[in-house]
Amino acid sequence: MKQTDVIRRPLITEKTTLLREAGRTIVFEVAPHATKVDIKRAVEKLLGTKVEAVRTSIAHGKMKRQGRFVGQRADWKKAYVKLREGEKVPEFLEGA
Q1: 81 pairs with which residues across the strands?
Q2: Which end of the chain is less enclosed by CB atoms within 10 A, N or C?
Q3: Residue 23 gets which letter from DSSP?
Q4: Low-confidence residues of the chain: pLDDT under 50
Q5: What are phi and psi of 62, to 5 degrees?
Q6: pLDDT at 65
């Protein structure tokens, strides 16, 4: 799996913004089959920072309906990436 396929996008929400400002944690949406080792390598290679720890969680898709038709959104995975002491958050995430 290529590094560009592992990380899909950074998650910018109120909770993730507070995590980023309070510490050294960045949150990404990642590929569902990516492991913690894959995520760590991808972040270190793409962002040029050292990673201390990676935590992952599965967000289950919501049930949605349109009229009488019912469907379900796909499940997706997110990763909480904690940077090492002394590393700074990349510039493109600073203003978000």
Answers
A1: 26, 54
A2: C
A3: S
A4: none
A5: -85, 150
A6: 94
Question: How many CB atoms within 10 Å of residue 33?
Answer: 10
Distance separating alpha carbons of residues 67 and 64, to the nearest angstrom: 10
83 Cβ neighbours under 8 A, 6+ residues apart: 24, 25, 26, 49, 50, 51, 52, 89
3-state DSSP assignment of residue 4: helix
What is residue 13's DSSP assignment? S
DSSP structure class, residue 75: P
Distance CA 95, CA 15 (A): 15
Q: Would you say 19 and 27 are in contact if contact means Cβ atoms under 8 Å apart?
A: yes
pTM of the model: 0.86
C-alpha angle 76-80-83 in degrees, rounded to nearest 5? 150
CA-to-CA distance for 74 and 11, rounded, in angstroms?
17
Q: What gap in Å lies between CA 45 and CA 16, rounded to an integer? A: 22
